[in-house]
Write a structure and sequence with these properties.
The complex is a heterodimer of chains A (201) and B (283). With 201 residues, chain A is mainly alpha-helical. Chain A has seven helices and no strands. Chain B is an all-alpha fold and 283 residues long. The longest helix of chain B is centred in the last third of the chain and has 26 residues. Classes of the chains: A mainly alpha (201), B mainly alpha (283). The interface between A and B is medium-sized, with 16 and 19 residues.
Chain lengths: 201, 283
Amino acid sequence: MKTSSLDRVLLLATGLLAAYQIAIGIDKMDNVPIIAYTIAFGVLLVAGLLLIILGLEVLEAPAVVIVSTIIPLALSLGLIWQRVASLRIPYLIFAAAGFLAVILTRSIPMKNKVPVVTIAVTHGIAGITIFLLPIILSLRGDAPAGFAWVGIGGALIGIGGLLLAFLKSGKPILSQKFILTVLPGLLLAMTICFVIGFKYG
Amino acid sequence: MQTIAAKLKLYLPLIKSLQTSLLLLTGVAGYLSAHTAVNWIRFWQMFPSLFLAIAGSTVLNMWWDQDIDAKMKRTHKRPTSSGQVTREETFNLGMALSVVGVGWALMVNGLYGVIVFAGLFFDVVVYSIWLKRRTCWSIVWGGISGAMPILAGRVLAIGRIDAIGILLACAVLFWIPTHTLTFSLKFAEDYSNAGVPTFPSTYGEAVARFAIAFSSVIAALTMGLAAVWIGVTAGTLRLIIVLSAGLFFLAATTVFRPSERVNFSLFKYASMYMTFAMLLIIP
């Protein structure tokens, strides 16, 4: 499927928003959240540029599974480090171990369900963290109401992950054309939510 | 009036507007990287002088390479090689643009003018006329000439050559092989037919790919170092590091998982990288 001009514009806007977030949106934080968010939005930025250059078909490459794990893991690590001090080290260990496990299970050929389970657990925990933590904190009054936008971004990233999983499953519930059509818009919407959430959170 | 419009239409491709614009942008970035109060009269004189000199050298290259261009599929439709613009006309146009551009630059500032002239001299005389048909290493001189606009811009702002200016020039110098070597890989047959020695034809494709990756990495490192020295904000530095990481990733992929698609991606990404980097060193 050919990448349209609209797709390119949406991806460029996503990249520019991610660039803004890296350069300005995460100042005045501790080192670990800055590094974690830089990695997350950095992957988003570089991925956006590569999708513009290479086209959306590149999403079918095997390495995409590994790269796409970085965004939720890094984002959730940043959130935990900022907001839940008691879980900092355990979550850091989980993020590092989860990422290594995804790399290993995707690099070594396996015929069992270990790769799928690994990715499901890693993405699942990270995704739920990004989705629920900001919303819970906002509802409890522990964070400004605007922080809930990060949670909405988390929901969208979850949908994006599911779409990518469908794309790679070989038996997609949704057609490849549909997935590739909505993905650039979804990426932009997700990034907008994160930028708003961090700005007003 | 129609004749003038028709002529301009023919002349436009001779100045390679995209390449000239990017080099002009490096000049502007070089000037603004000084983070000094902008002398607007000088700044606005830099645009036409630099533009005319770069455009002039590009046209003179086309004048000299007319026979080569005619043999290459990629370039045989250029107005010079297709005969729409005569060799004499091309030379006259190139000389006129070059003389006005360099002359203007010298009037704006002596050292600035000398650097603009050096860029033109390295590009036309050393690169095109002397070395291009003799050795694949000619691209180094092409790179040096391409690095002159950013140095010229910085010199115009601060009045002297400094270490940051040299670092910025090195970043452009090492970025240019990414461009030229990718083209020599993609159009290897063309260059071979025209008898132009290239890295792939002299040392093989693997060495050429390694050279592309290596020069990309060095370009990113020197740009990063220059940015630190200029004193960009922490956020800007983070952004440069992220963009550089993307460049390293593609450079490594070019070496370890080579394909034409990856090569071309690196080439395009490197162009985006340099554009963004130039914008980021501006306050």
